[in-house]
Amino acid sequence: MPSPRDSLPAVTPAFDPETPAGIGGWLLLMLLGLVLTPLRVAWSTYGMLQPVLMPGVWEQLTEPGHPAYHPLWAPLIVAETAGNGLTLLLALLALWLFLRRSRRAPAVIIGLFVWSLLFAITDQAATGLIPMIPPPTTETLIDALVAPAVAVAIWVPYLLRSKRVRATFVL
After folding, report:
1. Helix or strand or coil: residue 87?
2. How far apart are alpha carbons 171 and 162 in whole angstroms?
3. CA 16, CA 1: separation in Å to the nearest integer?
C-alpha cells in the first residue's frame, strides 16, 4: 500500500541562473588565502621558535638571574605557540570545509578571521610588556594588526551577505 508521502510531488530547489554558485569570483581569492594561511602560520611559528629552541636560549629567557630574563617570556612564548597552533588548526579546518563546500565553512572562516584579529591584538599588547623587545615599527604594526582587521572588515560581511556564498556552501 503506498504511503501518503508517495503521492506528494518531489520538491527540488529552484535553480536561478542569475545567482552565482560554485567556487568562483571572490571565493577564488578567499581560497588562495586559505591555502596560504597554514603555510604562513607554520613558517612564522618556526621563525619564532627556532632561535628560542637553540641550546641555552630558553634558560636565558626564562630563568631568573640571566640578563635577558623576564617573567613574561615563558608565558608569551607558550601562548604564541599555542595561539599559532590554534590558528593553524582553524585554517586547515576552514580549508577542508571550504573544499567540501560545507554549510559550516562560512562560520568557521569567520571564526578564523575574528580569532586572528583578537590574537594579533593580544599578542601585540603582551609583547609590549617585555622591555627587552623593541617597540614595533609602523610596518610591523600594519602587518600584525591592520591586515587581520581589514580581513574581518571585508570578508565577514561578504560571507554573511553574498549570494554566491549561500549558493555554494550547501552541503
Report:
1. helix
2. 17
3. 37
Residue 41 lies in a domain: yes
Look at the chain and report how many structural domains it folds into.
Answer: 1
Residue 149: exposed, middle, or buried by beta-carbon count in 10 A (0-12, 13-18, 19+)? middle
Domain, as residue range, for 48: 27-168
What pTM, to 2 d.p., does this model score?
Answer: 0.83
Grid cell 554573511 is found at: 160
CA-CA distances (angstroms) from residue 101 to 21, 164, 166?
11, 12, 10
How does pLDDT run along the chain (171 residues), one tens digit per residue? 565 555 555 544 444 556 687 888 899 999 999 999 999 999 999 999 999 999 999 999 999 999 999 999 999 999 999 999 999 999 999 999 999 999 999 999 999 999 999 999 999 999 999 999 999 899 888 888 999 999 999 999 999 999 999 999 998
| Long-range CB contacts for residues 70-77, cutoff 8 Å, separation at least 24 | 70/130, 70/131, 70/132, 72/126, 72/129, 72/130, 73/130, 76/126, 76/127, 76/130, 77/48, 77/49, 77/52
Q: Is residue 11 part of a domain?
A: no
Taking alpha carbons only, the member of 97, 126, 125, 123 closest to residue 110 is 97
Within-domain flag for 100: yes
Residue 22 lies in a domain: no
